[in-house]
Task: structure prediction
Amino acid sequence: MRLRHSAHQQVNFMPQRFWNTLASRRLARTLTAGLLLCSATLSFAQQLGGFDEEFDDEEKPWQEIALQLPPNPLPENLVEFYVGPTTPSKSYVDLKSLTIGSDNVVRYTMMTKTNGGAINIVYAGIRCETYEVKWYAFGHADGKWSRSRQDKWTRIKDAGANRQDAALYKSYFCQNGMLAGDVKKTIARLRENRPLDPARD
Result:
């Protein structure tokens, strides 16, 4: 009777152990599949998020940075540039004021001297991508600025005697609708009188 009782216990124990092992294996496979699915979902979400960021960057409209007016130009920082054969006045750029912002606008102070001795000072910006100019402010003899009433982007005029903006665009600042180098290269080009596309040609 004891032998039968022991055998009966062994017969009952083996199936229970088998089913426990089988259940553990199924649980492990289920957990592994779940982890793989979560990992794939997370990876896809990250890729989708990166795609959205790239798409947003492409769709963002151009925005101009905040303006900070420079000091009035000093004589030692002025460099003359050639405007054209029909321009009797002399035009200069203040190299200390020349900057290129994160919005890709070339900003500079320009001074013009007429044959009669009149001096005009303007702080302006040029957009290479759109062939536009904006006059921000006008300088005065006392070193102060007055804001321009036409503070908006306008098409650059390339005709007549007053083509200073066009001369700067074509000969020093821009090339093929893009910036023609960084600030250092632009300043060197003006200082050394090395125009990209000489206006005199």
